[in-house]
Amino acid sequence: MCACRCGIEVTLENGQPRYIRGNPNHPINRGVLCAKGNAGIMKQLSPAKLRNPLMRKPGSERGSGEFVEVSWEEALDTLTERLREIRATDPNRLAYFTGRDQMQALTGLWAQQFGTLNWAAHGGFCSVNMAAAGLYTIGQSFWEFADPDWDRTRYFLLWGVAEDHASNPIKLGIEKLKRRGAKFVAINPVRTGYQAVADEWVPIRPGTDAMLALAMCHVLLARDLVDWEFVGRYTNAPYLVIQNPGQSDDGLIARDGDGNPLAWDPEQGGPVNGAEAGATRALFGEYTLPDGRRTKTAMTLIAERYLDERYSPEQAAEVCGVPAETIERLALEMGHVAFNETVEIPCAWTDWAGREHDSFVGRPVSMHAMRGISAHSNGFQSCRAIHLLQVLLGTIDVPGGHRAKPPFPRPTPPAIKPAKETAPNTPLAGPPLGFPTAPEDLVVDAEGRPLRIDKAYSWEAPLANHGLMHMVINNAVNGDPYPIDTLILFMANMAWNSSMNAGSTRALLQAKDENGDYKLPFLVVVDAFHSETVNFADLVLPDTTYLERYDCISLLDRPISEPDGPCDAIRAPVIEPDRNVRPWQEVMVELAGRLGFPAFVDDAGAPKYDGYKDFIARWEKAPGVGFLAGWRGRDGDTHLRGEPNPDQWERYVENEGFFQYHLPEHMRFYRFANRDYLEWARDVGFNPSAEPIVMELYSEPLQRFRLAGQGLYDGPRPSDPADRERLVRYFDPLPGHYQPLEQAQVDDDSFPLHAVTQRPMHMYHSWDSQNAWLRQITAQNFLFMNRQRAVQMGIGDGDWVWVASRNGRVRAQVQLMEGCQADTVWTWNAIGKQAGNWGLSPDAPEARRGFLLNHLISELLPEREQAPRHSNSDPITGQAAWYDLRVRVTPAGPEEEDTWPQFETAPPLPGQPPAPEQLRYHTHEPVRIHRTLRDILMRK
C-alpha cells in the first residue's frame, strides 16, 4: 500500500476484510503497523474506486471529467492501435512515467522493449539526488540502500526525515536506541514525529544541510578525529589528482598506461598503481610525476578545502541558523563515540587483498536522511557532504554504523549507461536509465540537444538517474525538445499534488494549438481511484487495490532487504474485485504480447507468458536470475540464482509472502572490501565482478563534466553559455554548499520565509486522505508557523493568512507551534483536494479547508535575461526542488475564512455511487452486548 511495504495478514469475514494486522515474522515491520496499515479496510471500501474503463466523452473538453464507460476490449484495442503506430514510426512519441509504484523493473523493461527513451519513475521528484549521490560516492545511500545499525549504534543523526518515511522500521529502530540509551539527534526545520522524541532537535534552515555537515568535517579534521586507516584503505583519498590549470587533464586522477589510478609510494619515491593490493600509498602530499605534471592527493585537496575558515562552525552558523557551539559540540560528540566507544565483533574475515582479520571493528555513529535533504536544488552535494562526514568517521558498513542492504553496495557508480539510440519496432539496446561517468554518456544528439522529453541525461541534468517526471507535461506541451503523441501516467496525480504547480499543469493539459487540437494529443491515466488527474484523461484504465492483486517486490527493483541479507516479497490477493478492473501488471503483459515485444513473444510472435504471474516466474534477466529470488530451481530447492520454478508463487504464499536470506556472519560487514561477500555478490548476479568497491570522496565523473563546462574536456562540450556556467559552478568534484537556485534568484526581503511540506505518518500522498478512518485524524491542513515569529508579525493562532510566492498565492489557516524553525513555515502535503474527487462530498473539509503549497511552486526557475529557463531542479540530477520555495505571509481579511484557490467541483464518474454522508463499516449486524464491570475487567 505504501513504500514501507510492511507485511500484513488480512482476516476475512463474508468475503470482506474484517481485520488487518502486521505479520509478526515479516522482516520489515515485525508485526508493527501504522494507522495507514490498520485503516486499509477503509481504503478497500473507498467510494472513490474506479469501476470501469472510461473514455473522454466525445465533444467534451479535457478536464471536464465527462466520460463514457467502455469495455476492456475496446479500451485495449484503442490503446494497442495507437501504440502500434507510434512504435512503428517513432517510439519516442510515447512517454511513460510512473508514480509511487513498486514495479519499476517491469515498467522499465516494458519501455525498453517498446523502444522509447521516455520512461522514468517517481524518483526524480522524490529522492534521486540522494540515491545518485550515494551511488557515485559510497556504492549505496540512505532509504532502500542502507539502514542504521539499530542494534549497535550509540549516536544517531536523522537528517530531514518526515514522520511517514519508513515509519514502522524507523519506529522500531528508535525504540532500540531509546532502550539502550544511545543519543538521537534530529536535524530538521520542524519538530514533529520522530523529531519529537529525539534527545536533541537541531532546527536548521532549509537547504543548508551541506554547510552543517561540512562544518562538522572541519571540526573533525582540525581535531584529528578521523579514521585515517579507513579513509586511506577504502577510499580514493590517496589517489593523485592532476594540478594542471587550463588543460584538459586538470583535476582528473593520474593514471598509468592501463588506466589504473596512481598513488605515491613514499618508500619508492614514485607513483604506483593505487588500486593494487598491498601498495604503500601516501595520504597527504604534493608530488611531481615523471612526465613533469604536478599532483596532489585527493585527501590533501579535502583537507585544504574543509580546514578553510569558510567551513568553520562560525561561518556555518551564519548560513544554517545553528549556533557555532552546537555544531562543534555535535561533531566532538560524534568523534568521541566513534573513537572511544568502538564496537568490535569477534569474527574472522578476509578482505579483497587477502588480508586476514580476526574481528569487525565499528564506529557506532549512524545517520539516516530523506526528502529534507533531497528536495532541494543542492541536494546532491548535500548528500555527498553527509557521506563524507560518515566516511571520515569510518562508519560505512561497519558494526554500529550505516549498513548496506543487499544487493548494495554497488560499484561507484554502477556500470550501467542510459540508452540513447532508438529505431522503429526495435527495443532499446539497454535500459532507459543509467549512470553517466562522462559527457560521452549523455543522451543528446550530435548538436547536443536532449533526446528525452524530460531532458534527463542532457547538459541541463547530466546525472538524472531517475528522470525528471515533473517536467514531462511542460516539455511535451511546449514541444521542448519535441512534441509527443501519447503520455501514459501510472499512479501519478500530476494534475494535483504530484506536480510542482497544480494550476499551470492543469492549464498545460488543456492547452490547444492553432487548429484547436490538444498539444498533448492523448493522455492515458492508470489508477485505482478517482484522482484529480483522472478528470484530464482521454482514456482511463482502472487498476486494482493492493488487496486484490499479485505484486512482486523484487531484488531487481526496490527490495525489502535488511542489512543482514537480501529479502524480497510478494503480495497475494485476498479479495476478488467487485468491479470491472484489471491489475496494470496484467495489462502491461497483455499489451507487450499484442505489440510483439521480443521478450514477451515466442519465435512465431505468439504471447510467451500466460499473464503476470507466469511472466514473473519464468522471465530471466540473466541465466538463473529472475524477479523473485526465493525457491528457484525446477523443484524450488535453490535460492537467489536458479532456473525458473513454476510453483514459485505458491512457495512464497506458504512462507508468509516473503523470502529472506541470512548472510553468514563473516559476510555482514565491510562488504565493499569483504572478499567472500564480493565473490558471493558476483555469483548471485548482484555485481558484475568481485572487485573491491572504492568509495569516491573525490568524484572524477563530476570533474569531467566541469572540464566540459570550462571548454577543456577532450570530448563533447556544451554550446550554450548557461549550460557551461552550470557545469562549472555546480559540478564540484568535492562536496560543497551553494544557495538553492530559486532562493538565489528571489528577493529575501519580498519573500522572507522558507516553506516546506511533510506527510503525516497516517497518510500516504493523496491516497489516504480519502480514507474515512484516517480523515477523523486529519481532514484539514494548516499553515504551521513558529509562534514567536508569528506574534511578531501580528498573526495569532487560528488566523487566516495569505501565503504568496513569486509564482502565486494561497489562503490558509494558521496554527502556531514552538517546534518550527523561525524562518520556516510548513504544512501537511496532499490533504487538500479538488471538490468532487476521491469519493468525497463536494463540501468536504479537504476541499473547502484544505490547501496545497503546490500552487506556489514553479516547474521553471525565474527568467533571466538572454538565458534559457531551466527547470526548478537540482542541476546535477534533475531532482525537483520542492523545498526551495520562499514565501511571504500576511494576514487575511476578516471575511476571508476559506482556503483559496478553489476549483470547480468535478462531476461524478459514470456508475460512481454518491458520496456517503457517513461511512461506517461492519461485516455483520452489530449486537449490543451488556457486560458487568467485573466481567470487563476480569475476562481474559
Report what the structure shows.
The longest helix has 18 residues, at 72-89. Helix content is 24%, strand content 16%. The protein has a 7-stranded mixed sheet, with helices on one face. A 6-stranded mixed barrel has the order 26-30-27-29-28-31. It is built from 26 helices and 31 strands. The protein starts with 7 loop residues before the first strand and ends with a helix. By secondary structure, the chain is an alpha/beta fold.
Structural class: alpha/beta
* Subunit organisation of the chains: single chain
Distance between the termini: 34 Å
Overall pLDDT score: 95
Unreliable residue runs:
none
Strand percentage, roughly? 15-25%
Radius of gyration: 27 Å
Shape: globular
| Total number of beta strands | 31
Strand order of the largest sheet: 4-3-22-21-20-5-6
How many distinct helices?
A: 26
Report helical residue fraction. 10-25%
- Biggest sheet character: 7 strands, mixed
Question: What's this model, at a glance?
Answer:
By secondary structure, this protein is of the alpha/beta class. The chain has 26 helices and 31 strands.
Task: Map the helices and strands.
Layout (H helix, E strand, L loop, with lengths): L7 E6 L2 E7 L12 H4 L1 H5 L9 E3 L10 E3 L2 H18 L4 E5 L5 H11 L4 E2 L7 H8 L10 E3 L6 E5 L7 H14 L2 E5 L12 E3 L6 H14 L5 H7 L5 E4 L18 E4 L4 E4 L12 E3 L5 E4 H9 L6 H8 L3 H17 L2 E8 L5 E7 L2 E5 L1 H4 L4 H15 L8 E3 L67 H6 L8 E5 L11 H8 L12 E6 L11 E4 L8 E3 L13 E5 L12 H12 L16 H7 L29 H7 L3 E3 L14 H9 L16 H11 L10 H10 L10 H4 L8 E6 L13 H4 L7 E4 H6 L7 E6 L2 E10 L6 E5 L16 H4 L37 E6 L41 H6 L2
Helix pairs in contact: 4-16, 5-13, 7-10, 7-11, 7-13, 10-11, 20-21
